[in-house]
Design brief:
Catalyzes the reversible conversion of ribose-5-phosphate to ribulose 5-phosphate. It is an enzyme of class 5 (isomerase). InterPro entries: NagB/RpiA_transferase-like, Ribose5P_isomerase_typA_subgr, Ribose5P_isomerase_type_A. The protein is of the alpha/beta class. The chain has 2 domains: 139 residues, Rossmann fold; 66 residues, Alpha-Beta Plaits. It contains 6 helices and 13 strands. Strand 1, helix 2 and strand 2 form a beta-alpha-beta unit. Helix 1 packs across helix 2. The longest helix is centred in the first third of the chain and has 12 residues. The protein starts with a helix and ends with a strand. The model has no long low-confidence stretch (mean pLDDT 97). Bound molecules: ribulose-5-phosphate (5RP). The site of ribulose-5-phosphate has 17 residues, from helix 2 and helix 4.
Length: 219
Amino acid sequence: MTQDELKQAVAQAALAYVPEGEIIGVGTGSTANFFIDGLAGMRDRIKGAVASSEASAKRLAAQGIRLFDLNEVEHLSVYVDGADEIDGGFCMIKGGGVALTREKIVASVAGRFVCIADASKKVAVLGRFPLPVEVIPLARNAVARQLVALGGRPVWREGVVTDNGNHILDVHDLAITGPVALEARINAIVGVVTNGLFAARGADVLLLGTADGVVSSTR
Ligand code: 5RP
C-alpha cells in the first residue's frame, strides 16, 4: 500500500469516532484532508466543525460542512488530526504543516484526541523529525540562540508565515527523551508562541495505518 492509501485508511477509520449531532475539531495536513473528505459523507449527521487552520477551514467549507469559531464553542468531544511523529507514550511532534498553534488550541478543548497516522510516523524516540517552533518574527534570532543553548539546531523555514502571522523555526538534532519537560521549557522562552511537542496533552487514541490494516490503540 502507498503512504497515501494508509493515510486514507486511517482517515476512514476515524469517522467511527465522530459523534453524531456534535461539533468536532479538525486538524490540518494531508491525512486530515482525507478525513475532511470522508466527513463530507456524514455532513448532515454532524453539527459542524472547528478548523485548526485556514486551509482546513477552506476544505471543510468546500465540502459543505458548517464552520464554527472556537470562541463559540466551550467543549469538543473529539479532535481528529495527523502527526509528524508519535511515540509509545502517545506524545507527538506536529507542525510540519505549519498549523501547530491552532492545532494545540483546538485540541486543548477536546475530550479526546484521535491521532491518524501512517506507520512511518511511529517512533521510539521523538526528534528525528525537526521540531517546529512558532515564533514572533521580531524574536526569531533571539529564540534561535536559546534553542541552540538547549542543544538544538534551529533552521528558519524561510518564506513561511503561519495563519497567525508568525515565523517557524525547525529544530534539528534533538533526541527528545523527556517530551513533557521539553515542551514546557521551550514554551517558556520569550518570543515563542508555541512548539510542536504535543506531550502534556498527547493523543488519546492512535489509529495507525499499517500494511496489515489499521491498528487502533488507546492511551
Ligand atoms: C500540520 C500537522 C500535521 O498533522 C502533520 O504535519 C502531519 O501531516 P500529514 O498528515 O500531511 O503527514 O501537524 O501542522
